[in-house]
């Protein structure tokens, strides 16, 4: 039986591309299991690299730390990963759609003010107020 390789935090940081402080933060937030300690130093098995890759994927998709924590431990143990992703992504997609709509409204306003030729800000304010529906 071969021994499971034990990685110190510096090696995990190097292999994952994360700062050691980020790894400690994820640990403190409960996103990764607290590692064993040897001579006072954290030692991880290689599975932590998979856990960190999953966290990175979720972060890249725009999930918050709270949402990532829910993905990892906020479901019944037997809930399959696909179901976890579906539940979280449904809400995230709705959130993104709302943010995209808001960005489109912002672009419309910016295009309007780019065409401004008013001599003063007061004139500009009056013109914009008159142009508002309602």
**If classified by CATH, what would the architecture of the largest domain be?**
Orthogonal Bundle
Percentage of β-strand residues: 5-15%
- Can you count the helices? 6
| Rg, alpha carbons | 24 Å
Strand order of the largest sheet: 1-3-2
Major sheet size, sense and barrel closure: 3 strands, antiparallel
Q: Name the CATH class of the largest domain.
A: Mainly Alpha
Broad shape:
elongated
Query: How many distinct domains?
Result: 2
How far do the termini sit from each other? 77 Å
- Average pLDDT metric: 90
Uncertain stretches of 5 or more adjacent residues: none
Order of helices and strands: EHHEEHHHH
CATH topology of the largest domain: Multidrug-efflux Transporter Regulator, Chain: A, Domain 2
Structure class: mainly alpha
Number of strands: 3
Percent helix among the residues?
55-70%
Q: What descriptive keywords fit this protein?
A:
134 residues, mainly alpha, Multidrug-efflux Transporter Regulator, Chain: A, Domain 2, 2 domains, three-stranded antiparallel sheet, 63% helix, elongated
Question: Could you please describe the fold and organization of this structure?
Answer:
The protein is mainly alpha-helical. It folds into 2 domains: 1-68, Multidrug-efflux Transporter Regulator, Chain: A, Domain 2, CATH 1.10.1660.10; 75-134. It has helices at 9-16, 20-28, 47-60, 65-73, 81-114, 121-131, and strands spanning 6-8, 36-38, 41-45.
């Amino acid at each position: 039986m071969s021994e499971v390789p034990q990685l110190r935090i510096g090696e995990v940081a190097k292999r994952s591309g994360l700062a050691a402080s980020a790894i400690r933060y994820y640990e403190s937030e409960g996103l990764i299991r607290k590692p064993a300690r040897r001579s006072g130093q954290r030692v991880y098995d290689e599975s932590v690299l998979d856990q960190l890759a999953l966290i990175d994927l979720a972060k890249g998709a725009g999930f918050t730390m709270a949402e990532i924590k829910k993905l990892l431990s906020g479901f019944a143990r037997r809930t399959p990963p696909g179901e976890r992703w579906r539940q979280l992504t449904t809400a995230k997609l709705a959130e993104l759609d709302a943010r995209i709509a808001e960005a489109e409204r912002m672009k419309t306003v910016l295009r309007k003010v780019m065409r401004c030729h008013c001599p003063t800000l007061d004139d500009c304010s009056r013109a914009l107020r008159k142009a508002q529906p309602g």
